[in-house]
Design brief:
The chain contains 13 helices and 14 strands. The chain has about 375 residues and is α/β, with parallel strands linked by helices. It has two domains: about 10-15 and about 265-385, Alpha-Beta Complex (Aspartate Aminotransferase, domain 1), CATH 3.90.1150.10; about 20-265, Aspartate Aminotransferase, domain 2 (3-Layer(aba) Sandwich), CATH 3.40.640. β3, α4 (about 90-105) and β4 (about 105-110) form a beta-alpha-beta unit. α10 (about 265-285) runs parallel beside α12. The longest helix has 21 residues, at about 265-285. The protein is globular. The two termini are about 40 Å apart. The model has no long low-confidence stretch (mean pLDDT about 95). It binds pyridoxal-5'-phosphate (PLP).
Length: about 375
Amino acid sequence: MKLGKNMEYLVMLPGPTNVPERVTRAMFTPMINHRSEDFVELYEPCVEKTKQIFQTEGEAVCLSASGTGAVEASVINLIKKGDRVILPVNGEFSGRLAQMLTWAGADVIKIETEPGQNATYDQVKEVFDNNKNIKAFYCVWNETSTGTMINYLDRIKNLTSRDDSYYVVDGVSIVGGEELQMDNWGIDVCMTGAQKAFAAPPGISPICVNARTKKYMMDNPPNSMYFNLSKYFKYYEESKHTPFTPAIPLLYAYNEALNIILEEGLDNRIRRHRICSDALYSGLSAIGLTPFAQKDSRSTVVVALNYLDGLEDKIFRDTLAQKFRVLVAGGFGNLKGKVFRVGCMGEVNKYHVMRTISAISSTLSMMGYDTDAQAGLKSAEEKLKAL
Ligand SMILES: Cc1ncc(COP(=O)(O)O)c(C=O)c1O
């Protein structure tokens, strides 16, 4: 029997994630004119709350686009032909960023590490020591394809300050779920996608830019229409509008998602993400799975796990989705069929963690693997006591 389309899933993907009802309902707000005061009343709070979450006094532009749009905007508005850029590469999203930078004409100095491992701070420092005239350092904070997270973002400014290099962070899968102090850490540009740790529907991607970078972008606009940030800055300054028709229902939803984040408080939210990921790592290990990422590089918002020998990706994930209504993601590229990924983002809480471990364990058992669901749940429960 095919299950009804309206039977809800527990969305444990690394984006999109479960969307709270309050946020979904906000999308039903009647339509408004995007060239009116009604729009200002919607958009200005979105901008101001976004800045609060990124911890910046700079500018925020809430693009009607998926995360890739915001990442691409950071490239085409900042990078010119021949610019030297340093970029750690260890997975799908850092690979895509390398491609975008190359297309923009950059001379990309890649710091390549095996998937599942991050370049260390010392490795990054060595590349800065050996290269001069660096226009920008780019990084993918949370490499969603492998479940690794860079945990020294606060120290990079010691390196970027040498040449006044721009410091750009792709925070698409993590902002709102981990600590970020954009201004204090000397980050010039940072972006995310609303469908990840903000727990909003896909389609809005905020990008924050500090004052010196805004000036550069205003003085050197790209030959591009839609993602030309100077147009967004100009329209906002003049009327608090956007240059092109924004996805108004999604902005209503986004605004409500921001309210929920600020009501919970950033510290509480980050703590919850850390505890839940700890419980997922621990519980899923106890049922016999192993995390893909090296221990010191592990993400607190995406848990990537190695498949057990012979476990077929499609059958496993289809069974999990159809029998238990739990959605998890497969691997990318070379990791397809080798890992699966559990999102630990947005609304994630005790219930999500316990149901996910239980469903994964039952699925493994249905597929003939020996797992110990009790051990997994007990171990996760122990960690979740901290919540
Ligand atoms: C780190 C990172 N960057 C960029 C993207 C691209 O975002 P989107 O799929 O919303 O375009 C993703 C998506 O998962 C991501 O995880």
